[in-house]
Amino acid sequence: MTDAPAALREAHHADVSGGWLRPAVFGAMDGLVTNIALIAGVGGGGVSSHSIVLTGSAGLVAGAISMGLGEYTSVRSANEQVAAEVAKERRELERHPEAEARELADAWVARGLPRDLATQVAEAVRRDPEEALRVHVREELGVDPDDQPSPWAAAISSFLFFSLGALVPLLTYLFGATELWLALAVGGLGLFVAGAVVARFTNRPWWTSGLRQLLLGAAAAGATYLIGSLIGVQDGL
Q1: Degrees to nearest 5, angle at CA 129 with 126 and 135
Q2: At what angle do helices 206-234 and 21-44 cross, to 10 degrees?
Q3: What is the pLDDT of residues 89-103, one digit of tens each?
Q4: Which spans are transmembrane here (predicted)?
Q5: pTM
Q6: Is 113 strand, coil or helix?
């Protein structure tokens, strides 16, 4: 049985608008890598299990708040910039509609559309001011003014997923284990799983995506463990 053409299906593409998926993925990965490296660093210095839990918990809270605030500010600023450019384009369409129509036609001609057809379509679009604004913004700015990501969605997803990621390497200590290697192993497993999940959205092989995240996290943990060991030995810890 032949599959129906993708164009006939209502939703055959993933949502790539960046509302929650990007900050969620970035937050989870950052939470995992940050706390794995933090725990490796203080653990390499020879501190007690209590100190590791305290440090990891502080890193979780501080990092989650920082990620949430950063995502909110970043997305809100980007949306405000888009809004300013949309307002500028609206003024140009109101003041110079003929010139804007020619500009739109020229853009389509540059892509291979015949001049006559491009001009006809640009004139047709011009008759509806709101549609003209949407088309001009998409063509000139490469964004959809009606489909901007929510700063609150970005902030909340980043906060929550950073917290979840940062919690993973702490789990063994919270359940009573005291071995640093076990916490790092659980954190590494979390990195591999997170990378494999990301592959679901990118169509990459799950094992290569998981292995890539594991290697990146291992590099960060190795660097901080070495630094912690050197400082711990120097200070007599």
Answers
A1: 70
A2: 30
A3: 999 999 999 999 999
A4: 152-175, 181-202, 214-233
A5: 0.83
A6: coil
Q: How many CB atoms lie within 10 A of CB 144?
A: 12
Backbone φ and ψ for 197, nearest 5 degrees, come out as: -65, -40
Q: How far apart are CA 226 and CA 186, in angstroms?
A: 20
- Using N-to-C axis directions, what is the helix angle for 151-167 and 49-95, rounded to 10°? 160
Tokens 């990007």 label which residue? 22
Q: How far apart are CA 6 and CA 229, in angstroms?
A: 55
Specify whether the CB–CB gap between 168 and 186 falls below 8 A.
yes
Longest dimension (CA), the chain: 81
Rounded CA separation 65/44 (Å): 26
Amino acid identity at 210: G
- DSSP letter for each residue of 59-125: HHHHHHHHHHHHHHHHHHHHHHHHHHHHHHHHHHHHH-HHHHHHHHHHHHHHTT--HHHHHHHHHHH
Report residue 196 as tokens: 């494999």
Reading the block at residue 91, the tokens are 């003024």
Lowest-confidence pick of 16-25, 66-75, 174-183: 16-25
CA 24: distance to chain centroid?
Answer: 6
Measured between its terminal Cα atoms, the distance across the chain in Å is 68
Rounded to the nearest angstrom, the gap between the alpha carbon of residue 232 and the centroid of all alpha carbons in its chain is 35
